[in-house]
Amino acid sequence: MRSFGIHLVFILGLFPLLKGQSTLPKESYTFIEWAKNSIQPKSSSALHPFYASLDRLMFKGLGRINVVHFGGSHVQADIISGRLRERLQSFYPGNLGSRGLLFPYSIARTNNPGNYLVKHTGNWGYAKNVQASPAVPLGLTGMAVFTKDSGATVQIAFPANLKINSDFNLVRLYEGEGSEGYRVLFRGDDSIPKPYREFRHPETNIREFFLDSHEESLNLTILPLDSGSSPYVLYGIQLENEDPGITYHSFGVNGASTHSYLKCSLLGSQLAEIKPDLVLFGLGINDAAKGDLDVGAFKSNYRTLIRQVRATNPQAAILLLTNNDSYRPYRIRRRRGYSPNPNGEIVRQAMFELAESEGVAVWDLFEIMGGLGSAKTWEDNGLAQRDKVHFTFKGYRLLGDMLFEALLNDYQQYLKKRFK
């Protein structure tokens, strides 16, 4: 009875959405299909294992939940995913979690999320899953950086105004083969040497630093043990603490399609180290960018990715995010312009077919936006960029809030049925 009472207080007191008090700016953007902002299909139990984990975390204070989000440029910028991370880590008292797995994008000469700062020294090469023939095998993050420079460094810090938990006392480096030929030194704040214990897992090529104190920044120095060593390869840096909560890992590669992530031969083995409770796939916008879309190949690619996730954790909940409405450029003689991309509707339908055959859930962004041609309206209202593919900062933040509310509403329905 006590457990039921806690649930009841939580539902009635801490979830204002049940009372119709949505925090979304519905009156400001009447063109958005707010009524469609939900997890589909309505009767689906695809996310119930994730909600059961939320129950254990929030009502018993037990467990650590891992969320993984894959995508293209929408995710690399980490605005929609960053906002969802912020909301998930703050909507319930004490739900701290860790920052999770990061990639130093700026070392790969591409845009880095604004919620962590990366600096480096030394000469580094890079590989991406959008390249025809990446220079090294790729994994979970879809990218890698590599160097042979002695004394090369990687530094990560967090802005002072960050609203999520960023302290850590465990650092996990996802490294490539040959990393045993390198010594990696860890320093914390202000490059001051810190006491730590180091352990390397040769079977997974993961190196761990167990720190004696919590840090909020790091400085890694790479030192080859032999001048003939193969390059030191880094796939990502995972920052963890012992706090219970939700850790949200997001990996995006500008221009990435479903096929791009199938090039990542280490994805499954590295994902197994995280063992995700919820995986969000935001892939499809780049598959649909060209005129001809091979729907059969698209569904086959997604099916392979879904099954890779389930091989790492059979209980993992999976949520597909449909393409946003988008336009593509055209040129007729001297005239240039943009026209709505009809492939958005085709991808949407394919995702719903996958939901039925694979038992996954869908967040229907295409219909929520207003369907074909709606990206122009979003642009006119300051939510989408001029290319009518990407969103503005305000637009991405709004999408993060909308997805959070859709998940929260679906979770509430799960709780109502459970305690009916």
Summarize the SSE layout with pairings.
Blueprint: H1 2-14, E1 39-40, H2 48-60, E2 64-71, H3 73-76, H4 80-88, E3 100-102, E4 117-121, E5 125-128, E6 143-147, E7 152-157, E8 168-175, E9 182-187, E10 196-201, E11 206-215, E12 218-224, E13 232-240, E14 245-252, H5 258-262, H6 267-274, E15 278-282, H7 295-312, E16 317-321, E17 327-332, E18 335-340, H8 343-358, E19 361-363, H9 365-369, H10 374-380, H11 393-418
Helix pairs in contact: 4-11, 6-7, 7-8
Please give a structural write-up.
The chain is an alpha+beta fold. It folds into 2 domains: 1-97 and 244-420, SGNH hydrolase (Rossmann fold); 101-242, Sandwich (Jelly Rolls), CATH 2.60.120. Helix content is 30%, strand content 27%. The protein contains 11 helices and 19 strands. It has helices spanning 2-14, 48-60, 73-76, 80-88, 258-262, 267-274, 295-312, 343-358, 365-369, 374-380, 393-418; strands at residues 39-40, 64-71, 100-102, 117-121, 125-128, 143-147, 152-157, 168-175, 182-187, 196-201, 206-215, 218-224, 232-240, 245-252, 278-282, 317-321, 327-332, 335-340, 361-363. The strands form 4 sheets. Strands 3, 5, 6, 8, 10, 11 and 13 form a 7-stranded antiparallel sheet that branches. A 6-stranded mixed sheet has the order 1-19-16-15-2-14, with helices on both faces. Helix 4 (80-88) runs parallel beside helix 11 (393-418), helix 6 (267-274) packs across helix 7 (295-312) and helix 7 packs across helix 8. The chain is globular. Residues 1-6 have low confidence and may be disordered.
